[in-house]
TrEMBL record:
Keyword Nucleotide-binding annotated: no
Pfam families for this protein: ECH_1
Recorded coiled-coil stretches: none
Biological function: May play a role in fatty acid biosynthesis and insulin sensitivity.
Keywords: Fatty acid metabolism, Lipid metabolism, Mitochondrion, Transit peptide
Entry protein name: Enoyl-CoA hydratase domain-containing protein 3, mitochondrial
Positions of transmembrane segments: none
One MF annotation (Gene Ontology) recorded for this entry: hydro-lyase activity
Annotated source species: Ditylum brightwellii
Domain of life assignment: Eukaryota
Amino acid sequence: GVNIGLFCSTPAVALCRTVHRKAALDMLLTGRMISAEEAARIGLINESVPEQKLEDRVDELTDLISTKSPLAIAEGKPVLATQLGLPLHEAYDLASRYMVDGALGNDCIEGIDAFLSKRNPMWTKDREK
C-alpha cells in the first residue's frame, strides 16, 4: 500500500494483532516484501515449508490434530478467538469458565485416564459429566 501512496490501515489491524509492533511497522512503513522464512521468524505464519514438502507437512499436522479430542478443539477455537478481543481480566474469566467445564467433561476424564494408563484415548462427542 505505502508503495502506491496508500497506508494499509485496514490490513494493519490484523497485522498488528499477529506480529510484534516493530515488525508490523517495518512492513507497513517500508512496503518491503518479506520471505516466507522471515514471515515465520516474526510469527506471521507458523512455519515455512519448501513447496515439495508442503503436502507431507500438512498431512503430518492434520494427522496429529485428528488424534486430539474433537470436542475440545471445537469448543476451544471460539474461546480463543473471543478472548483475544477482551480485556485481560475478562479473557481470563472466560477462559477459566471453559477450562473448568472442559475438565469436568468426558473427554478430559478419558484423556487423563488414557495418559495414566499409557494408552490412546477414546474420545466422545458429548459433554455429559
